[in-house]
Amino acid sequence: MAITGRAVLAAFGATLVVLVAGPVGSWLVTAVLGLLAAAVLADVVLAPSPRRLRFERSGDTSVRLGETAEVALVVANPARRAVRGVLRDAWAPSAGAAPQRRPVRVPGGGRVRVATTLAPTRRGDQSAAGVTVRSVGPLGLGARQCTHTVAWTVRALPPFHSRRHLPGKLSRLRELDGQHAALVRGQGSEFDSLREYVPGDDVRSIDWRATARRESVVVRTWRPERDRRILIVLDTSRTSAGRVGGVPRLDHAMDAALLLAALAGRGGDRVDLLAFDRRVRAQVRSHGRGSRIPQIVEAMAPLEAELVESDPAGLVSTILGRHSRTRQLVVLLTDLNAASLEEGLLPRLPALTSRHLLMVAAVGDPRVTAMAAERGSTRSVYEAAAAERTLEERSRITAELRRRGVEVVDADPDNIAPALADAYIGLKARGRL
């Protein structure tokens, strides 16, 4: 049972009567209060029961972060009496549901459709918490209330801001692939055709046997190999929880991974995904050609950074256990933390780089670079010293990784996605992939 605002005002008025009338009129006040209580009770009894209502949901089941989704709720009243009152369709706060409350009237034997707009503020599954209906009596003094469980889940997907870079990167990739005029030479690339030598061609591409049969120098043209395997590894350990520009490092890594996956998929390569910290959090395996972007996006959506240390030995073992006989490009999106990499990944690099080509990509913090340039006060000088040390360690671990044959991409949040795509295209251009 629920008491409405009108009933509260009536009780307040009765209390004033008691204060004014005093002992002489107490019997009258008692009678008024009794009548009021009887009216409220009768109103509650006469209010249609909201328990008999039936609910159905329909609408969107996924939405990109930053966009809106609509979920419809159909309320059916199997009874003969109309139900009027207030309906609240409750969701988690991060779902951004609106409106939260609305007046509703469901005629007897009828159905009413109400819509809720969701604007999620974080990735992951947003679930409905319940539908509460307050059925008001004919006098508006009392009401009955009931909460129904009406399950529905909307998955908030990564926003993929770097999608705007995809057309330009695809154009560059097609130039390498021979769909435009530019064909390149490189170790491990597929032979395409023969043509006459022009100034600027690499002399190593000259085909001497074909040249001997002709009167002009002939060179071979090559195109990058297709159907290569690429494994994108997301580090979901505690370092990925750090915020860069107000956004978790893991989210920046996801955006870069999506651009790379879309580019490589369009280029004819097979793209797999692995999310790992101390165990596998998510994985997507490619089977034949075709884009795996929808599956990768779905796998990324519920991922959160885990506040645990990473397990490099377990990661390397997991990678080597997948397609162990096939050489692939392994792209590890992590943090260039000198301490963790020196103790964890570096000792295990030989086992990984002997069988696969490894690329490490990391999101740099522009604020650290800005701090290193500050000299305005004593505090800023100390901060600059700490920032300089961080940058020096970052540069040192980058140099060490490159010395061991690892490709390294280190860029700020705005540039990490296109920089990673450029590094992939560069490997294609040099024939390393």
UniProtKB/TrEMBL annotation:
Residues 194-370 form the DUF58 domain. InterPro entries: DUF58, vWFA_dom_sf. It comes from Streptomonospora salina. It holds the Pfam family DUF58. SUPFAM superfamilies: vWA-like (SSF53300). This is Uncharacterized protein (DUF58 family). The lineage of its organism: Bacteria, Bacillati, Actinomycetota, Actinomycetes, Streptosporangiales. It comes from the Bacteria.
